[in-house]
Amino acid sequence: MIEQAIELKNMIRRNYGRKSGLLDKLAECIAYFLPSEPSVNGLPVAHSAKWYFKNGVMVFESGAFDSAITYWKHTVTLDPKCSNAYFNLGITYLLKEDIDKAKNYFHEVLKLDPHDSETKTLYNHFWYIIP
Q1: pLDDT for the residue numbered 48
Q2: Residue 8's closest CA among 109, 113, 101, 95?
C-alpha cells in the first residue's frame, strides 16, 4: 500500500510537476492540523475534528488506509466544511481503487470550494482517463 502512495505521488509529479501545487496542498493540509493537539486544561480532546484528522494522517502514513478513512469520516462528521479531509478521503479511495467513492469525495471538495484548482485538475485528470 505504501508503494501505491509513492506511485501516486510520483504520478502527480510526472504529470503536473512540483509547481502544480497538489503535493504542496497535501503538505499544507497536514501542517494546518498538526502543529498542536487540541486540548482543554492541557488534556487532549479526542472529540475534535482536528484530532481525528491528525490521527487519520498518522495511520495513513503507516499504510492503514481503512483506519485513516474511519478517522477522516469522523472529521467530516464533526466539521462538514473540512475540505482537507474530503480530499484525503478521495486520495485514499483512489489508492484502494474504489473510483466511485474517490470521485464522490473529490466532488465534495469542489462543492465546498469550486475554485480549488488542484482538486479540479486531479478530478478532471482521473475521470478523463478512467471510464
Answers
A1: 83
A2: 95
Three-state SS across 41-62? CCEECCCCHHHHHHHHHHHHHC
**Contact status, residue 92 vs residue 69, Cβ threshold 8 Å:** yes
**Are the beta carbons of 121 and 17 closer than 8 angstroms?**
no
Q: Tell me: the pLDDT tens digits for 37-88?
A: 555 444 455 568 888 899 899 989 888 899 999 999 989 998 999 999 999 9
- Between the alpha carbon of residue 98 and those of residues 15, 63, 84, 95, the distances in Å are 21, 16, 19, 8
Question: The C-alpha cell of 29 is what?
Answer: 493540509
Write down the pTM of the prediction.
0.63
